[in-house]
């Protein structure tokens, strides 16, 4: 049976975060708010938990989840060969709705799916999400919806779609909208936008003028 916590209440927020972090340590799934849409999270370093996340969404290994981090300093622990323009984007737009695809650190012993040696990383601009990430470390997080359905912008929608496949739901009210983060691929010779999102190409080009689509 899933548990749901109304995190607008200070006391329930504290309890919910503790229960959610314990659930992550048990390799269970947690639904959490972000600054874009609600996400379903698993311990990025537990392959069984990541597999459960993909199964809950009805998604295969060919669509690996991004990894959310709680601080910019965590980036170098999971990503390698980050170009200078990638760091400039991070400095400007993190925390925020920017996901970057980098080469992963070769020493990492995790299994996010068929990544081809890359990892998609984001630091969300949401205080509850950042607090949970501080407690748990990096989390594999995908939008909290069944594959093919619209992303959940409130906790009730996420719970209606994912049900008891998730152990803990952290309800922080509606998110700003249904637009996801912008994904920028940093692994090629030039940076390019793989998925348009909250951050427009024009805003990103104020930092990296040669960014392509």
The CA-CA distance between the termini, in Å, is 44 Å
Number of helices: 7
Which structural class fits the helix and strand makeup? alpha/beta
CATH homology superfamily name: DHBP synthase
CATH topology: DHBP synthase
Name of the CATH architecture: Alpha-Beta Complex
Largest sheet: 11 strands, mixed
Into which percent range does the helicity of residues fall? Answer: 25-40%
Strand content: 15-25%
Shape: globular
* Overall pLDDT metric: 97
Model regions low in confidence, pLDDT < 50 over at least 5 residues: none
* CATH class value: Alpha Beta
Structural features, described:
The chain has 213 residues and is α/β, with parallel strands linked by helices. It has a single domain, classed as Alpha-Beta Complex (DHBP synthase). 30% of the residues lie in helices and 21% in strands. It has 7 helices and 11 strands. Helix 1 runs parallel beside helix 5. The chain is globular, with a radius of gyration of 16 Å.
């Amino acid at each position: 049976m899933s548990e749901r916590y109304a995190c607008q209440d200070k006391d329930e927020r504290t309890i919910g975060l503790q229960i959610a972090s314990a659930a992550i340590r048990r390799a269970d799934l947690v639904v959490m708010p972000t600054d874009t849409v609600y996400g379903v999270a698993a311990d990025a370093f537990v392959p069984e938990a990541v597999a459960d996340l993909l199964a809950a969404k009805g998604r295969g290994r060919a669509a690996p989840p991004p990894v959310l981090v709680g601080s910019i300093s965590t980036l170098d622990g999971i990503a390698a060969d980050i170009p200078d323009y990638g760091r400039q984007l991070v400095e400007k737009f993190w925390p925020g709705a920017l996901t970057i695809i980098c080469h992963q650190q070769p020493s990492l012993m995790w299994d996010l799916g068929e990544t081809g040696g890359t990892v998609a990383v984001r630091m969300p601009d949401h205080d509850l999400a950042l607090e949970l990430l501080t407690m748990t470390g990096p989390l594999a997080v995908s939008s909290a919806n069944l594959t093919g359905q619209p992303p959940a912008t409130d906790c009730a929608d996420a719970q209606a779609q994912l049900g008891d496949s998730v152990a803990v739901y952290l309800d922080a009210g509606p998110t700003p909208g249904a637009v996801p983060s912008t994904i920028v691929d940093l692994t090629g010779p030039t940076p390019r936008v793989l998925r348009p999102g909250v951050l427009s190409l024009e805003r990103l080009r104020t930092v990296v003028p040669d960014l392509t689509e």
